Amino acid sequence: MLVFAQASNGWSWDMEYALEILPAIASGLLQTVVATLVGITIGMVLGLVLALLRRSRLKLIRWPTSFIIEFVRGTPLLVQLFFIFYVLPNFGLTLSPFVTLVVGLGIHYGTYTSESYRAGIDNVERGQWEASTALNLSSTTTWARVILPQAIPTVIPALGNYLVAMFKDAPIGVAVAAGGILLAATSEASRSFQPVEPFTVMGLLFLAVSLPAALFVRYLERRYGYQRA
Amino acid sequence: MLNANQFQSFLDGAWLTVQVFLLAALLGTILSMIFGIMGLSENRFWRALARVYVEVARGASAIVLIFFAAFAIPIILGIPPRIFAAAITALGVNMGGYGAEVVRTGIQSVPRGQTEASIALNLTVTDRLRHIVLPQAVVVMIPPYGSLSIEVMKGTALVSLVGLADLTNRAQNLRIQRPVIEAAGGTAPSSVVIFGTALVMYFLMSQVIALFYRWLERRVGGRWYKERG
Known about the structure:
Shape of chain B: elongated
Distance between the termini of chain B: 55 Å
Radius of gyration of chain B: 22 Å
Helix content of chain B: over 70%
Number of strands of chain B: 0
Structural class of chain B: mainly alpha
Mean pLDDT of chain A: 91
Largest sheet of chain B: none
Number of domains of chain B: 1
Oligomer: heterodimer
């Protein structure tokens, strides 16, 4: 458990200390950004796979997929990280803290992106399917050359939103000792017993990334006329 | 499997999770309404203030807010640390940022003609909001507010990282105690059982929240259509 110095009156901001820890926390931020980028890559691929499985004609595939999506979406990412980190080794699969974090983020957000892909696919006009049938295109060709190229661009702004949301979740990798901004800040705080500066620097650096990212995604939404499903 | 004592400990943890969730959701809802309506003010200052709140509350992320509230704020204010209150405040403030946008866009979704007609019929501002605008806005707000509530419930797992004995914390503690239990000659549940049980309990809670909002949607939606006759 993390224990820090008790509250004391006459506290004042220590600028020298704040600047001294800035590089360490900034490098933690960089790790959080890297984890987010790897995580969203996994999430985007997994989401597409889940969206396609959920559309399967076989109930045996469709129903379990739906249940897994609902279950993952209905449970906390933190507990999912613990599950991956502590349970999988029993089955001979030991993942490093960083891999645990990116796999956890990827799976969690894969279930979210799958819903966006589903909306994107449903929005492709019926006539496109009919024309593909009329042209005698195989199912693979229909998906790869007709449906997905039209569905995926409409999903991009939604994926951007999940990228920002994932960045906000990525610091909880600290729970399995994965490096990142929160691990950097808590290490500094417990080393110096001066928690205010590390956590304030963390908050400001975090906002410095998440605010421009959120603004950029909103610009994308307006630019591409994306409508929330 | 968990023995009776262990299961009771999980239930106690789940009860704390429910308390944290309800209190955070209460604070979040109040903040949502205040800042959502403020975001529609004709006064630029109030609108800007609401904007800053929404961007910072969402951008800082729940986890960063929780650590800041738990460890930095008591020292800055010179008050004794109160982790429970800090965690609820952080989760509520974070929820309010998202909720304010739900309230604002919900009210904006009501066609302007409804407001104009109310003015033409000489309704007071209160009557206009209470009988015309809000009943229509609430119907639009319920589904996104339900998703937000589930996100907040999942977010309560983060309070385990600052030492509150919620469901996640109980699961993690039981896992840490396994060697102790086994050294004492007992049989400890495996990680699969520990985290699997916690996940199922969280999933049940998210399903209850989803059912509640679906019921609310039918009820409020039904009343609105009946009133409209």
